[in-house]
Amino acid sequence: MTYATDLLYEEVAYLAYHFHWPLDDLLDLEHPERLRFVAQVARLNGG
Q1: What are the residues whose beta carbons fall under 8 Å from the beta carbon of 27, sequence distance 6 or more?
Q2: Range scoring the smallest mean pLDDT among 20-24, 34-38, 43-47
Q3: Where are the alpha helices (DSSP H) in 1-47?
Q4: What range(s) does the DUF6760 domain occupy (predicted)?
């Protein structure tokens, strides 16, 4: 099973916007780790 491409782009864009990390670094993250970063950024933004 593959992760939905649209959701992957959404997560990567969100993290790239906030962390300014290179695309390769973001894509190298395992899915659970990337989701954890997304959740942390959301919490920091009051979400």
Answers
A1: 12
A2: 43-47
A3: 5-19, 23-28, 31-44
A4: 3-45
What phi-psi label fits residue 2: left (phi over 0), alpha (psi between -120 and 50 degrees) or beta? Answer: beta
**Nearest Cα to 25, choosing from 41, 39, 37?**
37
Rounded to a whole number, what is the distance in angstroms from the first to the last CA of the chain?
29
pLDDT in tens, 37-47: 999 999 998 87
One-letter identity of residue 21 = W
One-letter amino acid at 14 equals Y
Structure-block tokens of residue 31: 């899915």
What mean pLDDT comes out for the span 13-23?
A: 95
Whether this prediction's pTM lies above 0.85 is answered by no
